[in-house]
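Record type: monomer structure entry
Structure origin: computed from sequence
Chain ID: A
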Amino acid sequence: MDKNTNAPSVEQIAQVARLAARLMLESGGETYRAEDIANHIAHHFGLTTDIIAFPTGLTMTLTGENEVSSVIARVDRMSTDLMKVEQVNTVSRDLCSGRITLEEAHSELLRIQKIKPDGIALNVLYAAGGAALFGLMFGGGWFEILASGFAAAVIQLVLSYSPDQAGMPVSSLFAGFLASVITLLLNLVLGPANVNMTIVSTLMPFLPGLALTNAVRDSMRGDLLSSGARLGQAITRAVVLAGGAGAGLWLYLALGGVMP
C-alpha cells in the first residue's frame, strides 16, 4: 500500500469493504460474491484478507504492513434487489480501476444503501403481471390468467402492509392461504375454472426462486454451509407457502364448499 500520508487507513478500507459486502448480501447476492467484492477492494490497496460471509452476516480481517482491522456485519434484512447488486458491483469496479477514490466509493455506497424499494403500486403490478404470465404459460384461459393476476395483486397489497417477516414464515403462510381462498371465491362467484392452475399461477411469484438459485451457486463454489442455510430457507418458505394454500382449501371444504 502506498506509504503516502494521504493514503487511506486500513480501518477506512475495511469499512468500505464491509459496507459493499453487506449491501450485496442484503440485496440477494451470493455469499461468494460478497466475499469477492470485499477482497477486490482490499487487494486494490495492497491488503491481505481473511473474509467469511454467510447469508446472515460476515466477518473480515484486513491486514496491512503495520495495521490490522477486524470488522463484522450482521445482515438482518434481506430482499431481492438486483439493481442494488449491479450498482455495488459498479462502485467496486470503478474504485479498483482508479476512476473514483475511496471516499467517493463510500459516499456512493451510502447513497445506494438509502435507495428505497419500489412503491406499493409497482410491487402490486409486478405480482399481478407475473402471476398472469404464469397462468398463460401453464395453458390457462382468460379466466385463469385474470384470476391469478387479481389474486396475486391482492396478496401483494396485503403483504405490503404486514410486518416485515422477510418472506417467512408468517407472510408466506398468509400468502398461500389468501391464494387458495381468493381463487375459490372467484370461481364460486364468477363461474367454473381450473382452480388448481389458478392457485399454482398465483403462488409462483411468491416462491423463493432466488434463494434456491443462490443455494445451488454457493454449493458449486464449495460454500456448503451457506448453501445449506439458503436451501433450508428456500424449502421452508415453499413448504409454508404450500401449507397456507392447503389451509385455505381445508377451510373452504370445512365450511361446506365443493371443489369444482
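Annotation 1: The chain has a mean pLDDT of 86.
Annotation 2: The chain has two domains: 10-113, 120-254.
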